[in-house]
Amino acid sequence: GFVGAGMVITANIAGDEMKFLLGSREISSGDLDVYSENSPLGAAVLGVKIGETVTYTAPNGRVIEVAILEAEFYA
After folding, report:
1. What is the pTM of this model?
2. Which of 4, 11, 44, 64 counts the most CB atoms within 10 A of its CB?
3. Neighbours of 48 (CB within 10 A)
């Protein structure tokens, strides 16, 4: 498994576990935070293998570590 658009991602982000939808707000039922594939977080995790850790630079310049725990298609 790899992270792709339209998936619900569970990740450890800077030490906190978070679940979010990678994709468009139009496909969300409003129960999850949504990050576009073009956002700094979305671009960093797109195509990453489950179990891998990546980093991205937040708009404030801070480098944030993201460990992908799970990825499943949004239902």
Report:
1. 0.91
2. 11
3. 20
